[in-house]
Specification:
It is built from one helix and two strands. The radius of gyration is 14 Å and the shape is elongated. The protein has a domain of about 30 residues. The protein has a two-stranded antiparallel sheet. It is of the alpha+beta class.
């Protein structure tokens, strides 16, 4: 998950293993563009389905 982050709770190792096990290549990317103060910020993220 280089270059990515997730806010989670619980044991870091356990959560990291669970996140690594998700099928990230099957989850579509979502984009948000925000403009303000003379600049544009673009964020791309993935949201897996809740289980």
């Amino acid at each position: 998950m280089a270059g990515a982050f997730a806010r989670t709770g619980g044991s870091g190792v356990k959560v990291s293993l669970q996140l690594d096990a998700l099928p990230w290549h099957d989850i579509p990317d979502m984009d948000i563009a925000e403009r303000g103060h003379g600049r544009t910020e673009r964020r791309t993220f993935q949201v897996p389905p809740a289980s």
